[in-house]
Design a protein that fits this description.
Blueprint lengths: L1 H48 L7 H16 L6 H9 L9 H15 L6 H13 L1 H4 L4 H20 L2 H10 L2 E2 L7 H17 L17 H35 L5 H17 L9 H7 L7 H15 L7 H19 L3 H17 L2 H12 L4 H14 L10 E2 L17
Parallel strand pairs: 1-2
Amino acid sequence: MKAHLDSFVLALRYLLKWSLISLLVALMAGTASALFLFSLDAATGYRERHPAIVWLLPLAGFAVGWVYLRWGGRAEAGNNLLIDEIHDPKNVVPLRMAPLVLGGTVISHLFGASVGREGTAVQMGGTLADQLTKVARLDSADRRILLMAGISAGFASVFGTPLAGAIFGLEVLVVGRMRYDAIFPCMAAAILADQVGQAWGVHHAHYAVAAVPALAPWPIAAILAAGVAFGLAGMLFARCTHALSAFMKRHVPYAPLRPLIGGTIVAIAVWAVGTQRYVGLGIPVIVEAFAHPLPIWDALGKLAFTVASLGTGFKGGEVTPLFYIGATLGNTLAPLLDLPFPLLAGVGFVAVFAGAANTPLASTVMALELFGPAIGPYAALGCVVAYLCSGHAGIYRAQRGVKAPLSANPDADPGADR
């Protein structure tokens, strides 16, 4: 009885401790995400009313690059710094990361770069959470959990998907392995951060997937085939972005010149194609993917513009562009696979993200939260197949890997990096 009582007391203390810490993390991350989303809406609206502002994108990129070079320090590593600190805790993440990435991302969207928003929210959530390390006198083990909770809170509050956000914080660190010691803090922080964002008046985009066919041999086979394409798209995105980034660092040593060059290319490309359809978040195009057929050029165009933006150093995230690529690619594949295009747009929306980020579980849960439970079996199959076919070439360089499910070497070191 004494052992059971001691165990209960320890569990109760754990819950009370992390409930309080998670609430503080949620308040900070949810508020920061709300400020970010409101700023993003204002910047996007201004750019759409003044499309010629895209010609200032090179100068904006140079300015942000110079600020990061002058004051960024370790903050330049972005999401990878947070993941590294979770794997190997050393120093508290500098607080300046939050305002730097917030300002840098808003500027990217204002002037027409093709970037996302998850990276910004995750970095702000993790950075603000980590400031509690010294206040709460947390040890290295607890600090790891704190950072994971901050990541979950940032992801959940920027997309309005609390369960997916919680699982993302647990799943993104190591390919093929999850840390359940942080499940309660991540879950609590994600759910509360989403509520904080809603309390500030944040509204998220809604997507309708009305026609979901019953499970049958052909729809299942078609989803499996589409999952392969989604996985290859995720792999292509990750590898091209990393390759361009490495090329620019090798040939353009002065960091501010990289986004200046990239901004010039993007601005000329916008002028050449005669549309701003492929810059910014692209939410209207994503909504279109659920409403009517779209050409393959939408997926290819968004991939090219995003690789050019992120690979040359513009700040933002990868996930919303991945949603765009996946939804438009799924829309294009739907008639070839004889499936309703809203269904395949929804599966592609999450599956390309699953393949690029190596997060099939978080992506599946996100599909349930965004599109409803009916899409669940198809989304799960699409996300898992995309994950298996992506080659684990993830968008996060600091993400570590265990033995791949299809590895030819069963004795591979489970702790080795990929």
